[in-house]
Amino acid sequence: MFALRRRVVGAVCAVALATGVAVGSVGPAVADTGSAGSAGSSGSADLHLPVPTPAGMQALSAAMSQIGRPYQWGGTGPWSWDCSGLVQWAFSTAGVKVPRVSQQQQYAGRAIPFSALAPGDIIIFYRDASHVGIYAGFGQVFNAYGPNGAPIGFTPLNHWSYIKTIRRLG
User: Fold this and answer.
1) Coiled-coil intervals in this record (predicted)?
2) N or C: which end of the chain has fewer CB atoms below 10 A?
3) Which domains, from first to last, does the chain contain?
């Protein structure tokens, strides 16, 4: 079992290196307690690959079903949305509980580096974490933002000048 785990981790690392994807830090080495008695490491590694989660994809799909609905500050649906209300509702359709406001959503899930950004990840914008959207791929973010009444939809990622954090949920 430990030999198989080493082969899988080695293959994932090889793919990550071949594609230029950032690989997180490797945990401390621990002795292999396999029946063969060989000494090795079976530490854990945080791999940050640009691979969407099923929950993220389901949330993105749910959010996109709301395209064209109006932005409304404080809106939690179903007829109008604010940014964090849309994210909270979309992830609830995938069975993932997310806090209500973007300032709390910045701590949900796991932090992901920009190099591993995948569709379904949430992106928190601005230093005060006052906006959130769901990455849709191809440099686009699906989000709800104002002024009140503006239709929700896609915005280019490069529209925002500051990304506070990227989070992977589910």
Assistant:
1) none
2) N
3) 2-47 (no CATH), 54-168 (3.90.1720.10)
